[in-house]
Design a protein that fits this description.
One of its GO terms (cellular component) is cytoplasm. The chain has 421 residues and is of the alpha/beta class. It has a single domain, classed as 3-Layer(aba) Sandwich (Rossmann fold). Strands 3, 4, 5, 8, 9, 10, 11, 12 and 13 form a nine-stranded mixed beta sheet that branches. A six-stranded mixed beta sheet has the order 6-2-1-7-15-14, sandwiched between helices. Helix 1 runs parallel beside helix 7, helix 1 crosses helix 11 and helix 3 crosses helix 11.
Length: 421
């Protein structure tokens, strides 16, 4: 049963279930959105929680979770496709859990304002009728049946949103989606989790968790250790498939004084008519800022982009071609360019217990890529279930085995299917 606000968790300070001195103690490693939402879910289930992180929300050296575009999307997202069928199946379930929780948060005026969460139109544009692209048509049909609010399809969205048809848009659909002001939301989450009772420890871990699990559990009196460290999963989980995709977003003033205020997210698919790594992604961050992007640069680790970098200049020109009114946009003088490293993984998202050693009490949740906010509560719910299994002594299973159990069927990968033919 999907996680629900008020039934399973509350945005209020008091946990739904009060812990006792005998309640299991969980060590969560990672202070980003994945770690904080996971901690929130566990606290409301009555666990005692300590969050360990090398850094916390701040305005000087922002966390990846603060830099994210934070537009909820049904997977696969516009910045790239899932390559693993098992992870994609999980992600579709996770994203809908998160959708309904963010929607419920946004529906409470005071909490929606404090948390920086709003439900806004999110429009997707296509270079051909959606029916002519099997993948996009299948995705649209899934979205229509998913339970999202405000779905509408029509090419009239192109004119309504002042998109230049010559860019290549001929079809479009719209839905209401959570759009999150990440600086505000990360501050709110950090404060909420702390007020619910979590202890915060600032520390950097530089070893495989499997090698130091016993020491960590003894030092923190932890019954279970949860790894929510994004790119650091390469080191902390011994996972060589983890890699970064560098992203960048220009921040422009969106108060209606320089161009008509953009009050909807506007995107065109990464595989439309232009370079798949250079997309159009326009997202209102808050009442006064519009994010314009974006780019996807695999294996680029340096955060050395500027407004004059060729790829950033092309990004702005591309967005201006798509939405010509942006030619008069002014950049935010205080914070003109956001850039960060999306934490991707070869087999996509991993929410799974440690499989390398029997008896380990480590649970992993990393590899969310650019979808940390979109998958947050869904991943957290599965982590909580894995914590319970761990404490009950249930043997760990792979993500594939868990998906097969959930469906009651065998799930084969494309490689296995080809091998069997």
């Amino acid at each position: 049963m999907p996680l629900r606000l008020w039934r399973d968790l509350t945005p209020l300070e008091q946990p739904l279930r009060q812990p006792t001195a005998e309640s299991p103690h969980i060590l969560v490693i990672g202070g980003g959105v994945t770690g904080l939402v996971t901690s929130w879910v566990l606290l409301d289930q009555g666990y005692r929680v300590t969050v360990l992180s090398s850094a916390w929300v701040n305005s000087e050296k922002r966390l990846t979770s603060q830099i994210a575009g934070a537009l909820w999307e049904f997977p696969p997202a516009v910045c790239g496709s899932h390559t693993d069928a098992i992870s994609l199946a999980h992600s579709k379930r996770w994203c809908m859990t998160a959708y309904h929780v963010w929607d419920a948060i946004a529906s409470i005026p005071v909490i929606g304002q404090e948390s920086g969460v709003r439900m806004m139109p999110s429009d997707f544009f296509f270079p051909c009728p959606v029916e002519e692209d099997d993948a996009q048509y299948s995705k649209m049909m899934e979205i229509m049946a998913s339970g999202v609010r405000g779905f509408y399809r029509g090419a009239d969205l192109i004119d309504e949103r002042r998109v230049d048809p010559s860019y290549g848009a001929v079809d479009a659909y719209e839905l209401l989606a959570p759009i999150i002001d990440t600086d505000k939301s990360m501050e709110w989450l950090t404060d909420l989790v702390h007020r619910k009772g979590a202890e915060y420890v600032t520390e950097t871990i530089t070893e495989d968790l499997l090698d130091i699990e016993d020491d960590l559990r003894a030092r923190f009196a932890a019954d279970v250790v949860i790894n929510c460290t994004g790119l650091q999963g390469e080191l902390l989980a011994g996972d060589k498939t983890v890699y970064p995709i560098r992203g960048g977003l220009i921040r422009v003033i969106n108060d209606g004084s320089d161009f008509p205020k953009v009050d909807a997210a506007l995107t065109i698919t990464a595989d439309a008519v232009h370079d798949a790594n250079e997309i159009v992604f326009l997202v209102p961050r808050n009442d006064n800022i519009l994010l314009i992007g974006g780019i996807a640069e695999p294996q680029k680790r340096d955060l050395d982009l500027t407004l004059d970098s060729p790829i950033i200049r092309r990004m702005r020109e591309r967005c201006e071609s798509f939405l010509p009114s942006l030619k008069s946009a002014r950049v935010d003088p205080d914070y003109p360019l956001a850039q960060g490293l999306r934490p991707f993984r070869g087999n996509n998202v991993r929410v799974e217990r440690e499989l390398r050693r029997a008896g380990s009490r480590i649970v992993h949740s990393y590899g969310q890529g650019g979808a940390g906010w979109s998958l947050s509560f869904g991943c957290a719910q599965d982590v909580a279930s894995l914590v319970e299994e761990t404490l009950r002594g249930v043997a760990p299973r792979s993500m594939k085995e868990m998906e097969e159990e959930r469906r009651g069927t065998s799930v084969w990968s494309p490689v296995e299917i080809r091998a069997a033919l």
